Amino acid sequence: xxxxxxxxxxxxxxxxxxxxxxxxxxxxxxxxxxxxxxxxxxxxxxxxxxxxxxxxxxxxxxxxxxxxxxxxxxxxxxxxxxxxxxxxxxxxxxxxxxxxxxxxxxxxxxxxxxxxxxxxxxxxxxxxxxxxxxxxxxxxxxxxxxxxxxxxxxxxxxxxxxxxxxxxxxxxxxxxxxxxxxxxxxxxxxxxxxxxxxxxxxxxxxxxxxxxxxxxxxxxxxxxxxxxxxxxxxxxxxxxxxxxxxxxxxxxxxxxxxxxxxxxxxxxxxxxxxxxxxxxxxxxxxxxxxxxx
Amino acid sequence: xxxxxxxxxxxxxxxxxxxxxxxxxxxxxxxxxxxxxxxxxxxxxxxxxxxxxxxxxxxxxxxxxxxxxxxxxxxxxxxxxxxxxxxxxxxxxxxxxxxxxxxxxxxxxxxxxxxxxxxxxxxxxxxxxxxxxxxxxxxxxxxxxxxxxxxxxxxxxxxxxxxxxxxxxxxxxxxxxxxxxxxxxxxxxxxxxxxxxxxxxxxxxxxxxxxxxxxxxxxxxxxxxxxxxxxxxxxxxxxxxxxxxxxxxxxxxxxxxxxxxxxxxxxxxxxxxxxxxxxxxxxxxxxxxxxxxxxxxxxxxxxxxxxxxxxxxxxxxxxxxxxxxxxxxxxxxxxxxxxxxxxxxxxxxxxxxxxxxxxxxxxxxxxxxxxxxxxxxxxxxxxxxxxxxxxxxxxxxxxxxxxxxxxxxxxxxxxxxxxxxxxxxxxxxxxxxxxxxxxxxxxxxxxxxxxxxxxxxxxxxxxxxxxxxx
Lengths: 293, 470
What we know:
The structure holds 2 protein chains of 2 kinds. Chain A is an alpha/beta fold. In chain A, 55% of the residues lie in helices and 14% in strands. Chain A contains 14 helices and 9 strands. In chain A, the strands form 3 sheets. Chain A has a 5-stranded parallel sheet with strand order 2-5-8-1-9, with helices on both faces. In chain A, β6 (148-151) and β7 form a beta hairpin. The longest helix of chain A has 26 residues, at 267-292. The termini of chain A are far apart. Mean pLDDT of chain A is 83; it is low at 285-293. Chain B is α/β, with parallel strands linked by helices. Helices cover 53% and strands 7% of the residues of chain B. In chain B, α17 (406-415) links the parallel β4 and β5 (418-423). The interface between A and B is medium-sized, with 34 and 34 residues.
């Protein structure tokens, strides 16, 4: 397990204790992992890092409303089938052609199929599963528990290698029990202050240590407020980069006001944050300024 | 410590170890999780056993993490798991210790001559940044120093007594000297953790002394609540409403499978048939559109419901977070629309302040006039009410002797698809005094609603698919 944690670190991802443990279990038990948590805490990034560490290809299926089998599993290549029929018309019998055009040659593999059929083991990422509807979830069940896909015309296609499967969800919808039952569960939350500081430092090593600490402290403060969209780790990293670009020496009231929009993305939130956090940052400055005025 | 009790006596009190050794313990643990409402299947248990084979058991965090990943599959379940894990393994360990008659070396019995005031300060200072283990030691020290004598018999009372004796408070205590670590107040969650440790240690003591396991404490609603927002109640309301939102969001999908293809769309079928020379080879169906909730909420903010109106306003606030097509009104004697206030104000306290200040609720007497409210409401939104709309009334139906005008209310309910009434009074008080809920109840579905679990019942009813008049 230690090995896996250091491996992920090497791949540019700092896992929490639980993350490392669950990833370890996933590789050992060969079970899919359902990763839930607020947006931007590194759910997708975890899959990428795992792929890098395991030196496997990452096959990604981005889910959206209305995603169906044809786009997720496989599709028959109609055009090629038509061409085949026309090219042979007259000569071959019906049975021959029928057997022929439903062969693997005419199959267009989509992400799930690719992951299953790949001769090399892969990491399969099914991103934002909560965006699809329940029918799609049900379709995934066969894949997740047995790593196989049934194609009516061809029969069953079994996985040649065991892929590591990660499903992510933003928890916008309750997933079905059946799906949860087949997965290990990992809840990723906003990290502790020290952990986040480490992450920010890893992604923007040029930023001054004290500024980085202050940045993380502010972000953590902002998350405590009741916002529509609290800032994520991705956003604190963006902010750190913005500060480097601006060459900021310190995060004071002005810098904060100028760069606030990097981490807070809602108009009403902007007001709240400015009122609660911005003022706090300004206060020490104005205290110094008072005697002079 | 008490003199060693004869084993026979212990065995009558401490239950024997269940059969099956460790596996049996784990199954008992799972059973306890089920009792607390988690849905655990056999497959999950098998996973848990498989996971435990892969990890070292030497680290409690790994052990717990592996079980949690296989058993608890939502944040709520995770929280329950956490609590039950603590409770179960604590009790299991203590029971085992009592069975084997192992007791901790009674160092605490030695008379304590330490300067109590210095100890107070030390504990407070260590609390600022203490680890779990340090907290535990501190808790023992504190019990040894301040928890002497017979306990009150109720653990919670003892915990609070010791905390007070230590002078620990979360709020700042400016009258303390400058260098006292308690001056700025102890961090709230540190204090909570310390209290937890105190409780554990006291419980351990009790088990050792009496050689019996106290009955386990079932989890309460408060335990279960995820520590989130600043206002606990508000968080609970938001959670219920979030659930409501999810139910409504998935509601359309449930209908998809069974009933979607109920109606043939003749026009589109005919058009499609042109391709096949007028033969309707392919039938076109009318898609069943998921119900888009359109909600009108009327909220009583008069003095008779003062205690409940915070709850109501928080419901309203949470609803606003979830539904875009929502219009809300508050009323006392007359009605006034507050949709904008809630859309503008994210912060609940600010919103409720704004409502009470400048919502312009015209009230002269401060007494609700339902008759007038219905008339005004009907005049205001008559054109917008349609069979797909839902009207929710939050109020106690106390008219202060004024005419209830249930005929106007009936007109409203007739136009709207569904009407719900949430009454903050227990059903026992309905129709006593000036409450006329029965007059209104004929036209709508009324719920008593003054706790979040009742709100959940309402959510269930609201999320039920509409049957008639679609």
